[in-house]
Amino acid sequence: MTDIRKLQVQGVHHITLTGADRQTSIDFWEGTLGMPFIFEQPNLDSPGENHLYFDPGDGRLITIFTNEDRTPDRRRTPTDPGCVHHLAFAVSEATFAQAETRLKARGIGYTGPKDRGFMDSIYFKDPLGFLIELACYRFTPPEGCRHADVMIRAHRLRVERGDHHIDRVHLADAIEALVEERHASLSADRSARNPY
Questions:
Q1: For residue 84, what pLDDT is reported?
Q2: Could you tell me which of 105, 158, 102, 160 has the C-alpha nearest to residue 134?
Q3: Model confidence at 27: pLDDT above 90
Q4: Domains in the chain, ordered, with CATH?
Q5: pTM above 0.70, yes or no
Q6: CB neighbour list of residue 92: distance below 8 Å, 6 or more residues apart
Q7: Which helix (H) or strand (E) holds 175?
């Protein structure tokens, strides 16, 4: 019998997309989404292509294979099984509040904002027809927790209560439970009380 073990991942290292020409990629990823253009070299697996690297803000990378013989095609990229449907990027509430105005100023069509219960989203296509989402969480995790910690707890509460989707009440109750579990208190009774 074979000893089967997981290949445990620890996060996204980078995502690579096939782009058109170099300048279109720079204009979109840096000039529209604000990702610093940090590195460039030939595509080591395909000599006719260039490989551009952008920093999406969390220290990981978005990379683009470019070729000066390719031109942008704004038709929607395929969504067949096995294809990437869209990429979602985290933005602050301040940036999200400006997203519609800034997309309109560029003449970029969009869908949203959409209420996702635990976050707000707005969608638009890049110059090659690839769907991009700007996502803004509606909560800040308690100290020492990650967004995923709050999400799994909120999901469990939603399922227990028979609710359709995660909403603000599940997030608030999840955060309260995580604080109670992970942060000590001198009080013997930490239940909700009314001091008035």
A1: 92
A2: 102
A3: yes
A4: 14-137 (3.10.180.10), 139-196 (no CATH)
A5: yes
A6: 136
A7: helix 168-182
